[in-house]
Fold this sequence. Notes:
It is a single chain. Helices cover 25% and strands 33% of the residues. It is an alpha+beta fold and 189 residues long. The protein has a single domain (11-182), classed as Aminopeptidase, CATH 3.40.630. Strand 7 and strand 8 form a beta hairpin. Bound molecules: coenzyme A (COA). Residues 38, 41-42, 102-104, 109-115, 136, 138, 142-145, 147-148, 151 line the site of coenzyme A.
Amino acid sequence: MLIGSTTLPTLETSRLRLRWLTEADIPALYELFSHPEVTRYWSWAAYTERAQAEKLLRNIHRLFAERSLFNWGIARREDDRVVGTCTLSDLNAQNQRASLGYAVNRAHWGQGYGREAVSRVVEFGFTSLELHRLEADVDPRNTSSIQVLARLGFKREGYQRERYLLNGERQDAVLYGLLRPEWQPAPAR
Length: 189
Ligand SMILES: CC(C)(COP(=O)(O)OP(=O)(O)OC[C@H]1O[C@@H](n2cnc3c(N)ncnc32)[C@H](O)[C@@H]1OP(=O)(O)O)[C@@H](O)C(=O)NCCC(=O)NCCS
């Protein structure tokens, strides 16, 4: 997958540019992941120190080098400001599948950035990476995330009880999946 590349390809949408993250984006990553509503159903607790965002960036770069994580910054085309992240993880070439993740800065929820960015990464997964299956697991209370997946055609496939322990709370997960033949490409940008 992306043989020889040292950075992720940039993916364009009408309002967004999904791009490689750099040290200049550390403040934006910190702002994103230090908001408790953003990490309410996330796999880690809200950041309290900038060093956590620095470590995240190092991991993003290292895991891309290993080709186990593709983590784009969601930047607005108008000012290149990073307003979120979108990821493909658990990349499995043999079975042609990956897991999807996404987060948008709390100040920018409800503007369609989530759907626009995720839709583009889904397209990249099914076309450029030639994946057959994309999957995501979501807390059943995370209605906006479920809405993003449902609008893109993801099907509910299962329910896992108490799959996560976060901030002392056991959280359930709903599994969603989308197969390449089921995917309806978005209209041309
Ligand atoms: C999930 C998330 C990325 C959606 O980002 P977003 O940019 O607000 O998404 P959109 O604007 O495309 O909206 C998606 C849907 O959620 C709804 N929505 C957005 N903000 C909402 C809010 N605060 N309350 C209720 N619904 C909301 C929208 O109306 C939209 O539904 P629609 O398509 O029927 O109109 C964002 O809420 C987020 O970062 N959540 C925290 C991180 C997270 O949980 N990620 C997913 C882990 S599986």
